[in-house]
Amino acid sequence: MRQPCATPPTSTAFLPLCRPIVRARIWPGTTPWCWARTSCTPRPKKTPRVSSRVFKGLDSFDDLNPGDLLVHRDYGIGRFAGLHHMDVNAVANDFLLIEYSGRDKLYVPADRMGLIQRFKGSEGVEPALDRLGGAGWASGKEKARKAIEKIAADLVEMYAYRKVTKGFRYDPPGELYHEFEATFGFEETPDQAKAIQDVLDDMDKSQPMDRLVCGDVGFGKTEVALRAAFRAASEGRQVVLLCPTTVLAEQHYQTFRARLAGFPVNVGLLSRFVPRPRQKEVLKAAASGQVDILIGTHRVLSSDVKLPNLALLILDEEQRFGVRHKEKLKALKKNVDVLTLTATPIPRTLQLSMSGIRELSIIETAPQDRKPVASAVLRRDDSVLRKVLEREIEREGQVFWVYNRVQGLERVAEYVRALVPTARVGMAHGQLSETELEDTMHNFWHGELDVLVCTSIVESGLDFPRANTLVVDQAQMFGLGQLYQLRGRVGRSDRQAYAFFVVPDAERLTPIAEERLRIIMDMDYLGAGFQVAMEDLRLRGAGNILGEVQSGHMCRVGLDLYLEMLEEAVGRLKGTPEAHTVETELTLGLPAHIPASYIEDGRERLRCYKTLTSAAGGAAREEAALGIRDRFGPFPEELRNFLAVLDFKQFLTELQVQKADVHINHVRLVWPDGQNAVQPERIVALTASMKDARMLPPAGLHLPLPSDVPFAEGLDRLRTALEGIRTQAGA
Rounded CA gap, 8 and 120, in Å? Predict the structure, then answer.
C-alpha cells in the first residue's frame, strides 16, 4: 500500500483544502491532502503490456468480496460466498463457495478457478441466479452462441474480403517524407516510434491495413496519424480523418495545417462550423482530387462527398459513432487502409485485435516531463472552489468547469462568476450556434478566457496546453469513461495539473457513483486507459457497443465469456485449428493448498490462487510462484504440493485425461469413452513395466507414486513415465 508523504509538495500547496469523501480511499493515519492523489510519491514504472493479454486485464480477484456475482463456465451465474477451508475425505484443502438459486451451493476447488470469471453486465441490472442442475444456463449459452455465430460471420466476411482485396502499395518513404518527419518538435517515445513503423509496414503490404492504435490522452496518437496521412498524400492519394465532434474536427484541422505548413499537401474541413458556401468549395475540390486530407465529422460520410483517390481512412474514437454511421463506414472500409485511434478502447474493439481481425499497436510510454494529474474528490464548498480557481488564474493558467446538462449551464456560469468576479468566464455547449461556439473556443484557445464553463463537449481529444485545472461539477452524474477522458483535457504540458470531482454530499451518492469515483481516483497513473475501459464496461454495460439485442445475450452469460465465445467463433470461421481440450477434473487425497498460516489475509490468498491457476503455462506459473516466495518466504509443504499438482494437471489436460484422483502414494487416471488419446498396447506396456500399476476398465489406469522421494519429485517421475503415451497421442 502506498505510504503517505511526510510533507506536501510545494507544487500542490492548495491540496490541504480538499475534503475527500470516498471512504475506501482514506488510509489510516493520513491527512486529507495525502488522500488526494498527487505526484509526490512516484509510482514504479509500469512494465509494458503484452498485446495478446490486453483483454485479460481484469481476470484477477483483487477486489472480490462476498456477495459479488461470478460466472462458472459449466454452472452459470452464482454469488460468491467466500474462500472456505474444508475437510473432504479426511483431507483439508481450500474451496470457493458459490451460492446459486434455491440455496444451492457449489464448492469449487482452488485448482479449478480458471473456470470462474467475475460477472460483468449492465449497470444497475441484477441478473437472476442460475439453479444448479437446471437447464436455464445451458439454454442461455446456446442462444448466445447462435447470436455470436452471426456476428462472427459478419466479421469474418469483412476479414476475408480485405484479405483478398488488393490495396494501394506505396513506394518506400522518400526524402520528402523524411523531411516532414524531421519537423516533429519532440523525440518519439519508443512505443510511438514502434506504432509509426507498424503503420508504415502495413501500408507497404498489398492487402488493406486495419490497425488499431491505443494510447492514453496526449501520448502521441495524432502524430502517428499525421505520418500515415502525409505518406498517402505525398503519393497522390486522398485521406479522410473522421472525428466524433465538431470541436475535435476543428482542432485536428488546425493541428494538421500547422504540421503540414510548407509541404505540398492541401487540408480541407467539413463540419457544421464550415459555412455552406465554403462546404461547396471543399466538396468540389475533394471531388477533383485537389483536397489531399479531408477532416470532418460524420458529415464526410454524406452521399455528396466524393473522393476519387481515397486510400486511407483515419477514425478517431470510432466507438462514439452511431450504428447508422458505422454501416456507412463498413462499406467504406472494404478496400482502403483503415487506422483507428482510441484512448480508452472498448473490450470488443480489443477483441477484434485479439482475433486477428485487426492489428494492434499500443502506446503506453508517457511523453517526457508528462506528470500524472493530481486528483481529488470534493464536497461542494464555495471557499474551497474559489481558492481552486484563484490559484490557477494566479499562475496564468486556465480552468475547465464541466457540467453535463445544457439546462442550468447558464446558472453554473453565473455561480462561477460570483466565486471569482475578476475571472473571464465563457460558456460552451453543443446547442450554441456554430458562430457562438467557434468564437468561444477560439477565445479560450487564445487565452482570452480564464474559465470555460462547458458540457462534456470538450471530452474528446481537445488540446489546450494552458488549461491545467479541471473542475467536474456534479461528478456523480458522469460515466467512468467520461471522467477519465475529461481528466485527460488537463496536464498536456510540463506543468502540474489538477482535477477536482465535485459532489454535493457523500451520504447521497449511489453505490455505483461511489464506485466510479473510487476507480477514477485509483487509476490516476499515466496509461490507465485500458483498465478504465474494462471497468467502464463492467459498470455501464455494453448496450451502446454491441446493440441492444447483443447486449441481452452478453448480460446472460457475462462479458468475458461472451467475448471468449466470439473469439472462438471467429477462429472456427477463419479455419484456425480449434483445441478441443477439456480441463482435467482433479480429486485430491492430500493437502495441496496455500495455508492460512503462510498468507493470513483471505483476499490475498484468493489473489495468489487466481494468479497461479490462470498462468498460461509452466514458465508463467513458476514466475508467479517466485513472486509469492519473494513476498512471503519459503513455501510450506502444502503449497509445494499445490504447485506440483497444477503442473501435473496441465500435463494431464494435454494428455486428454478426463478425471484424476491424486493421492500421496498413487494416482488414478480416467480417459473419456471413445477417446483416441492413447493406444491400448502402450498402456499395457506401461503397466507391465511398473510395480503395482494396473488397468481399471473401461478406460482407467492406477499408477503408484514412489515413497522414497518427496511428492513433487514423485509426480515428475510419473510424468516422465507417461511421456510415451503422450508421444503416441500426438502421433
Answer: 39
pLDDT at 545: 39
The phi, psi pair for 479, rounded to 5°, reads -75, 160
Average pLDDT, the chain: 78
Inter-residue contact 407 to 484 (CB < 8 Å):
no
Residue 632 cell numbers, joined: 512471503
Matching residue, cell 457544421: 272
- pLDDT tens digits, 439-453: 888 788 788 999 999
- DSSP structural state of residue 26: P
* Angle between helical axes of 136-164 and 559-574 (0-180°, round to 10): 50
CA-wise closest residue to 718 among 656, 671, 658, 669: 669
Banded model confidence at residue 47, pLDDT cuts 50, 70, 90? very low
pLDDT score at 386: 94
Listing DSSP states for 498-527 in one string gives EEEEEES-GGG--HHHHHHHHHHHH--STT
Under 8 Å between Cβ of 503 and 378: yes
Contacts of 406 (CB under 8 A, 6+ apart): 429, 430, 431, 455
Q: What is the pTM of this model?
A: 0.58
Q: What is the rounded average pLDDT of the residues 378-402? A: 93
Cα separation, 481 vs 523, in Å, equals 12
C-alpha 330/C-alpha 162 separation (Å) is 11
Going across the sheet that includes 310-316, the strands are 267-270, 293-296, 238-242, 310-316, 337-342, 210-215, 359-363
